[in-house]
Specification:
six-stranded parallel beta sheet, alpha/beta, 239 residues, globular, 12 helices
């Protein structure tokens, strides 16, 4: 069902896992995880809009966004944070001895993941900051993913870079596995950044926990997103 011009996945996490696990053995497809920041960026970023259009699933990442979507008539069973979905898939990957290609995420965190999940074979590429503006660097990144077939391709690059790269990988028709556009989720799994306790998540306060943990990086961004999102919401409520 659509809201903010996004066709959201409306089922449960368990149903989603059942649907997407076969994709881990197939030609490349990818998942995006819309939240309020993404909705704000989609207003003016055509490449992000195009990347969203070719994603296999658009999953509500935010428990803050969930009641807003329900207010707009989208009957979602639950929010499925990208970090939670990534953790579940990593556990499955460890049990099944899968291969995972990681793009982004610092080398020390990938080393921690290798120690935590010895059953997984990791390939890792760390493009330079701002590489999305350099076509040669983008091509190199895409070539790396194509050259390292995997069950999961975790794009930990931040929005909109990770979504644009996912769409470019998809367009090659040469890559394998399921792509996850999940930002800093691997940092939580590696333990370098502490995720909010489950009870805080259940109260829809994970955003506040993250601000308290990283105020310099997140406070201004969240405030900016809130200011931009309110008029977008008002416009959609009136239509």
């Amino acid at each position: 069902m659509k809201a903010f011009d996004i066709d959201f996945y409306t089922g449960s996490k368990e149903q989603l896992l059942t649907r997407i696990l076969p994709a881990c053995q197939q030609p490349f497809s990818y998942i995006v995880t819309p939240n309020i920041n993404h909705i704000v960026q989609l207003e003016h970023d055509q490449r992000l809009t195009e990347a969203y259009a070719t994603a296999s699933y658009r999953i509500c990442d935010s428990r803050v966004l969930l009641p807003i979507l329900r207010l707009l008539g989208v009957k979602l069973e639950e929010a499925i944070p990208g970090s939670t979905l990534t953790a579940d898939l990593m556990n499955i990957a460890a049990e099944r001895h899968w291969t995972i290609t990681v793009v982004g995420c610092e080398a020390n965190n990938v080393a921690l993941l290798r120690a935590k999940y010895p059953g997984i074979t990791f390939h890792h590429d760390y493009p330079p900051m701002g590489f999305i503006k350099d076509e040669m660097a983008v091509s190199r990144c895409i070539d790396f993913v194509v050259a390292h077939p995997a069950n999961l391709v975790v794009l930990a690059l931040g929005c909109p870079t990770q979504e644009i790269i996912a769409a470019r990988i998809f367009a090659t028709g040469q890559a394998k596995g399921l792509g996850l556009c999940v930002g800093g989720s691997l940092n939580f799994l590696a333990g370098s950044v502490k995720r909010a306790p489950e009870w805080v998540q259940n109260l829809s306060l994970e955003w506040l926990h993250r601000i308290c943990a990283e105020p310099k990086r997140l406070l201004r961004r969240y405030a900016h997103d809130a200011r931009r999102f309110i008029p977008i919401l008002i416009r959609h409520l009136r239509t």
